[in-house]
Amino acid sequence: MKRWILVLLAAMMTMLQTGAFAESDDEIRNYTRYTDYTPQAVEPVGLIPGEDHRILVVWFSRVGNTMFDPDVDVVSSATLNRGEGGELVGNAQMIAGWIAEETKADVFQIQTAYTYPSDYYQTVQVGEGQDIDFVDLTLATHLEDVSGYDTVWLVAPIWHYTVCTPLRAFLEETDLSGKTVYVVTTHCGSRFADSVEKIQLMQPNATVIRDVTVSGYNPGGAENEVREFVQSTMK
Ligand SMILES: Cc1cc2nc3c(=O)[nH]c(=O)nc-3n(C[C@H](O)[C@H](O)[C@H](O)COP(=O)(O)O)c2cc1C
After folding, report:
1. Per-residue tens of pLDDT for the chain, all 235 residues
2. Residue whose CA is closest, atom 29 of ligand 1?
């Protein structure tokens, strides 16, 4: 038998013994136990450096964590927009883009290990189930070192009347002690819900500030308000 086949077999045996396959199956069940679909592994983007490395913009959207059907309906989903090139843009993603333009900050996109469903209502089932079960979600990307940042903007949708599970996962593995943390939410009625209080509880040594909240039905209408708030924090 060729040596490379032996090496491959040995690697597979090790994975079986260490439970690496079982772990990814368990992680996939964190999505599929709530609705029937096939999650895909997410392609990680990682940190995008800006010009000011003391400020970090962190965002989470369905976009970047979903394999959308090509004919997805951006109008009735209330969470999707089209960019200038026709690409899909999430609400939190759009807001984070304005903040990044104003601050020139580094930008980090929270990404989950596996994709959410293309269908909005199935995603609601998964997102709400993960919150109710307090699922310990694995992320696809991690920030190794946040010590250089003094200001962090957190931009994310409200899910199930609270902090969405991917943002909770990020806050569980990232220590923002000593930093000023601006919370920006997007929603379809719940505004901030309990997110500011929850983030402060999770990050007791950070100064957590309630910033602006943007309706998912008309995110573009909040652009000036968001940009003006960001500018006011930099005076
Ligand atoms: C899983 C899930 C749960 C949601 N739960 C709520 C909620 O409890 N309250 C609310 O106002 N909006 C809720 N929404 C709506 C989103 O907060 C809103 O559409 C947001 O603008 C989406 O931002 P995004 O495009 O960046 O993902 C939910 C959406 C999803 C997908």
Report:
1. 577 777 777 777 666 555 555 679 999 999 999 999 999 999 999 999 999 999 999 999 999 999 998 888 776 666 689 898 989 999 999 999 999 999 999 999 999 999 999 999 999 999 999 999 999 999 999 999 999 999 999 999 999 999 999 999 999 999 999 999 999 999 999 999 999 999 999 999 999 999 899 999 999 999 999 999 999 998 8
2. 159
* Best CATH choice for the domain 39-233 from the list 1.20.120.350, 1.10.150.110, 3.30.40.10, 3.40.50.360: 3.40.50.360
Instruction: Verify whether ligand 1 is closer than 6 Å to residue 162 (CB atom).
Output: no
C-alpha distances (whole Å) from 222 to each of 99, 186, 225 are 12, 10, 5
Give the residue whose CA is nearest to atom 4 of ligand 1.
Answer: 159
Which DSSP state fits 41?
A: B
pTM, to two decimals: 0.91
CA of 136 to the centre of ligand 1 (A): 20
CA distance 104 to 86: 25
* Six-digit token string for 97: 């883009």
Backbone angles phi, psi at 19, to 5 degrees: 80, 20
State the closest ligand 1 atom to the C-alpha of 95, by its place in the atom list counted from 1: 26
CATH 3.40.50.360 residue ranges for the chain: 39-233
